[in-house]
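I'm stuck. Please check this protein.
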Amino acid sequence: MDKPYHEEIKLHILAHIAWLREELSRIDDDLKQMIQNSPVWREKDELLKSVPGIGNVLSAVILAELPELGTLNRKQIAALVGVAPFNRDSGAMRGKRMIWGGRATVRAALYMAALVGIRYNPLISEFYYHLLSHGKAKKLALVACMRRLLTILNAIIKHRTEWKYA
């Protein structure tokens, strides 16, 4: 193949990437506007973002993908998102507990928020390092932080109170 053909493909791909970025920016702006236009969503957004480590992305994902937040207990919401440990026991066989199922988009956003929380949220950070000091694996500790963060967010929405760390 000749060089001009490769350049043409490269320019086409770059133009497509630029168009996708513009579309994503437009969608983000539309989403922000929808949240601001809804008093219920705006209040929930402000409450969620009062927690250190929770930003626009997780807040928007939760508002869009997890309308049950604040209406279920901590075990139910953890199972719904897929961060509750389930056993895989059968007869005399006892296995490790695993997380599975749930809403993958919420779980992925919660994962990133837990990583940020370990650095900037004192409660999540203390919990993470406490688990590590007791010999827990890093992945297990991170999932436990995701569940703890989800539980905190659930309580904040349920009681309509901002984050307070004493």
